[in-house]
Specification:
Helix content: 25-40%
Distance between the termini: 22 Å
Largest sheet: 10 strands, mixed
Shape: globular
Bound molecules: zinc ion
Number of helices: 19
Radius of gyration: 23 Å
Strand content: 15-25%
Structural class: alpha/beta
Length: about 550
């Protein structure tokens, strides 16, 4: 019962320091810690929609609102972003530098590894990977709680496996994510499938076979304007076809199913009733799929965000029903921006799709010809971010080839900057307000000398790195603030809320939550700092 002791000490200390007259009832120590990550829910989307919310996202705004949260690093992708939320650490420390990266030592033709896999499991491949937290170099909140008391339970449910794994960590008790056909758990999981998962899978299978027609909410009608992109149109709602499994991920039913499982497990596992606090991590992934498929400013995103509002509301009601003190933090793994076609139509003249000439394979071929080398000279999983010099480029030539590659990238007008691994290795970890960091500091925050590329390439703002927009029209992943800024909402029933416009980092979430339960975090282990949730002179942080 180390917790309670630690927590009592903290309360006494906070109480002694308080000298205000009438004080509100102290808010009880949370027994259920809930983290909700809404994939691609940018601070811009929060600002645009916050007045329209009537459900859970309205109620969370009565708590503490950090409208300028930051996923402070450059690699604004799902896996790095989720790795910061409950670890207190930036990707440079979590080791999760991207969704996928190149590992030239691996025995795979594409040399690609996935952030949430264990490639050492026999039979694992890029397409048939074994889900694991192996690559996550640091403990999560759940791992830290379990290290103190094995009674703490850690539950992670998400649309995406990487969201569940990076939020949950190394010692998850129950992890559930969508496999592409049903909600599944990882291969080492023990015990029977919970009834709520079975029931949800059965309901989802029915729904995929017979999709329900969902009318566009009245609040979204004015956003229903078609935009032409590639061979199709976005901006207006299209009905899902019967049997279309892929359409499930971009439907309101996807997040609803994840929420159903989360709520079911709160109830079935009697979360919060054990002798130590429990963690429930929920990854609502559909917003990201909607953003990629339709962009961020159409009727589709409007309907989706009102769906998130409803799902968060249902989760809060389920937590209320337990009558157990809880805390909910809601944030996102990264932001996002709209498709360049609609951005341009709305006056952003610099919005464009990437020049296909910037494909690493093509640039590598040119370098191969110039230096008389075998292709590929450059390896990468994307036309920006981490670019790797092939291992078989001979040692004496490597510096010259790398410099030529750097210059080649910089000769393209869509490229904003190129950093070398050496440059980033020499930079100290960034500090101070994340909105003021230099571009190099943003890259440094997601740089891991073992895993990162030899070159780090930043495209200019509003350049969408999708040349062919037939399947995916918009994305994120840039070091620009539209991809870095996310809301961070912290809600404790009974606590007085306030809005804090100054920037904080998602890495600040872990120490902030840890302070609420008196969980010590040894100095120097994390990047984040405790953020005070008390609106007055008291503090929720250790003094
Ligand atoms: Zn995404």
């Amino acid at each position: 019962m180390k917790y309670s002791c630690l927590f009592s000490t903290f309360i006494v200390a906070a109480g002694m320091a308080s000298h205000a007259e009438p004080v509100a009832e102290p808010v009880a120590e949370p027994r259920i810690i809930v983290a909700i990550s809404v994939d691609q829910f940018s601070a811009d989307l929060f600002a645009e929609y916050r007045s329209l919310f009537t459900g859970g996202l309205k109620r969370l705004q009565s708590g503490v609102v950090f409208a300028n949260g930051y996923q402070s690093h450059a690699a604004t992708e799902t896996c790095p972003g989720h790795s910061t939320i409950l670890t207190g650490s930036r990707p440079a420390r979590t080791g999760i530098i991207a969704n996928d990266w190149i590992d030239q030592s691996i025995d795979r033709p594409d040399k690609k590894v996935y952030c949430a896999e264990d490639p050492t499991v026999p039979g694992s491949s890029t397409t048939n990977y074994t889900v694991s937290a192996k690559f996550l170099k640091v403990p999560t909140l759940g791992d830290r709680l379990k290290a103190v008391s094995s009674h703490s339970r850690v539950i992670a449910v998400a649309g995406k496996d990487r969201a569940a794994v990076m939020l949950g960590g190394h010692s998850i008790d129950q992890v559930w994510y969508w496999s592409g056909a049903s909600f599944v758990t990882w291969s080492t999981a023990k015990g029977p499938t919970p009834a709520i998962v079975e029931a949800t899978n059965a309901a989802v299978a029915k729904l995929i076979a017979n999709p329900a027609s969902v009318p566009l909410p009245a609040a979204c009608q004015t956003r229903s304007l078609p935009v032409s992109v590639a061979d199709h149109e976005v901006g207006v709602i299209h009905e899902a076809k019967a049997g279309d499994v892929g359409a499930f991920k971009i439907s309101l039913a996807f997040d609803r199913a994840v929420t159903d499982i989360g709520i079911g497990l709160i109830h079935d596992l009697k979360l919060g009733l054990g002798p130590a606090p429990d963690v429930l991590a929920i990854g609502l992934s559909a917003t990201d799929y909607v953003g990629h498929t339709f962009g961020t400013e159409g009727a589709e995103m409007c309907a989706q965000l009102l769906g998130v509002d409803d799902n968060v509301g249902r989760t809060l009601k389920a937590l209320d029903a337990t009558r157990i003190p809880y805390v909910v933090v809601l944030t996102a793994d990264h932001g996002g921006t709209d498709l360049p076609e609609r951005n341009r139509a709305r006056g952003a003249a610099d919005a464009a799709r990437i020049d296909p000439a910037l494909a690493p394979g093509k640039l590598g071929q040119q370098l191969a010809a110039e230096f008389g080398l075998n292709s590929p000279v450059l390896l990468a999983t994307q036309p920006f971010g981490d670019i790797y010099l092939a291992r078989d480029v001979p040692g004496p030539m490597r510096a010259r080839v790398l410099e030529a590659a750097r210059k080649k990238y910089l000769s393209y007008p869509q490229v904003a900057a190129v950093f070398t691994a050496d440059e980033l290795r020499r930079l100290p970890a960034p500090s101070g307000p994340p909105d003021e960091w230099s571009l190099a500091e943003r890259f440094r925050a997601s740089f891991d000398p073992e895993r990162s590329g030899d070159l780090l390439v930043a495209l200019k703002p509003h350049i969408t790195p999708i040349a062919d927009a037939r399947y995916s029209v918009a994305t994120h992943g840039s070091p620009w603030n539209y991809d870095r800024r996310v809301p961070i909402l912290v809600y404790r029933p009974g606590a007085t809320g306030f809005e804090h416009p100054l920037p904080i980092e998602t890495a600040d979430i872990l120490p902030t939550l840890a302070a609420l339960i008196g969980l010590p975090i040894p100095a120097g282990e994390i990047d984040g700092h405790c953020v005070d949730l008390d609106p007055g002179p008291d503090t929720t942080c250790p003094r």
